[in-house]
Fold this sequence. Notes:
Layout: H1 2-28, H2 32-54, H3 61-71, E1 76-80, E2 83-86, H4 87-104, E3 114-117, H5 122-133, E4 138-140, H6 147-157, E5 161-164, H7 169-181, E6 185-188, E7 199-200, E8 226-232, E9 240-245, H8 246-253, H9 255-258, E10 266-269, H10 276-289, E11 292-295, H11 304-310, E12 315-319, H12 320-328, E13 342-346, H13 350-360, E14 364-369, E15 378-379, E16 389-390, H14 393-398, E17 401-404, E18 406-407, E19 412-413, E20 429-435, H15 449-454, E21 456-458, E22 466-476, E23 481-487, E24 491-494, E25 497-500, H16 501-508, E26 514-522, E27 531-538, H17 546-556, E28 565-568, E29 584-585
Parallel strand pairs: 1-11, 3-4, 3-5, 4-8, 5-6, 6-7, 10-11, 10-12, 12-13, 13-14, 27-28
Antiparallel strand pairs: 1-2, 8-9, 14-15, 16-23, 17-20, 18-19, 20-22, 21-22, 22-23, 24-25, 26-27, 28-29
Protein name: long-chain-fatty-acid--CoA ligase
Domain AMP-binding enzyme C-terminal: 503-568
GO molecular function: long-chain fatty acid transmembrane transporter activity; long-chain fatty acid-CoA ligase activity; nucleotide binding
Amino acid sequence: MPGLGILTAAVVGLVLLVVLVPAAAGRLAPFFWADLVAFGGLVGSSIRCRRRLNRCPPVTLLDVFQENVRRRPRWPLILFQDEVYTYEDVDRQSNRAARLLTRRLGGLEPGRTVAVFLPNQPTYVWTWLALAKLGCPMACLNCNVRGRALQHALAAAGATILLASPDLQAAVEEVLPDLQRDGTRVFYLSSTSPTPGVEALLPAMEEVSDEPLPAHHRAGVTANSKALYIYTSGTTGLPKAAVITEMKLMMVANLGQLCGLRPDDVIYTTLPLYHSAGLLIGVGGCFEVGATCVLRAKFSASQFWDDCRRYNVSVIQYVGELMRYLCNTPKRPNDREHGVRMALGNGLRAEVWKEFLQRFGPISIWEFYGATEGNAGFINYTGKIGAVGRANVFLKTFAPFELIKYNVEEDEPVRDERGLCIRVGPGETGLLVIKITKNTPFHGYAGDSQKTEKKVLRDVLVKGDAFFNSGDLLMIDHERFVYFQDRVGDTFRWKGENVATTEVEATLAMVNFIQEVNVYGVTVPGCEGRCGMAAIRLKAGATFEGQDLYTFTVDTLPAYAAPRFVRIQVSGVGVASGDGSPSDLL
């Protein structure tokens, strides 16, 4: 029967195709399957998020959290010091907080922004949920901001209500008269108030109901509704309020699940909740999968592993500095006696990565790259030491990106005779730009269209296109692994924060003995990022007053932004050449 023979041949051919093509692909492209699986996970996560938010009414991250409340009400959500808060506990506390806010604020209408100025503590989590239940975006103020920067941060997000911690009393009282004059209402989320005229809200919380709130508060919420404002220092100026929509919030909260976060995991978060890594990936990741989050007010290298053992931690969050601090602690016989199986974070240098694994054991490290306001990023799903991800062919179809030639001295992309940007080749360093599309939108900064536009690079590959300018230099090697190289523009990174040099310069220029000042970052052996150096020229007849300058920086600048080195120069204050040795140390 010739028909049967043809069918048999076709089946055999198909089997050979299924078996041999992947095998050949595996030999020619050894990371083919890893690339495909990672891309499948990314697409699946994106589809899941979009389906949720396209429903009527939309299913937001808050709704996912509340589903976990129904499924596992007594499962621990937050562990903090000796306190345990279950999913049900946090839900009820957030209901009380929401009802209290509406009572004290005379009917807090949906869409009104409320700023929180809090350190890491459980109150932060249920306040976030309370505001979400009211349909109000939350502005996450950096606990290090002071004075003019604090006022600017509130104004940028349009926040006229500030919920603060007494731990930040000095910062609050410094700007309180100006805030009250401008109509901003200030409250402490605490049992008592140390500041006359500022009410403490927590005593009244026990008097209000913990019943669920009516759904009408969130009737207008969509995928593009503003959920949060998270502050970032970009290339210049004061902190900018990056817009986090409901869609972006859910996509970022899914990152942990993409990396393998499970419902039975306990994730240890010492990163500040006012940044996206701690709040969205850490706490938000727990909301997504139903896991447990251990919160710590501040990172402690000496107590880190003891905490991991105490709370049965299985997943840790990090930034590069944190891992280096852990490696710098004295070695202990029990360094490998812990249950940590996975680490999620960014900024981990190759040499620290190797040392961490050698000392603390075979922990699966998931390094990622992304900006809070950015429209896409990378995940290192292969464990390649030093890389932030892979530029696989599948990813570029979903989130088109390029590395383009960049003139560091001129601080601008290099363009060809047609006025278009030029791609770099494998092994070359280039500026990362990510195309702005429906899949990868850029929502910019609240209240500042000019700064939003500055982050958009146009006419990159063809006339009329638009890309998000990351401000970062990256390199892709011949195996398509991606490596972070450096930042560009007037920004450097120190202590896990971005420092905007122009803002520091504007602040230091107010010192009475300084004629000119230029601030830049210098490398320090054994430290991540760059440390601040201020090159100054004194006014005629003035003397350098080191103690006065130190006191001024403590009073006016966040600790991470204050220069640690000062170079006194006789003439101009352009970035100094040579070894960058300081002439004084703050």
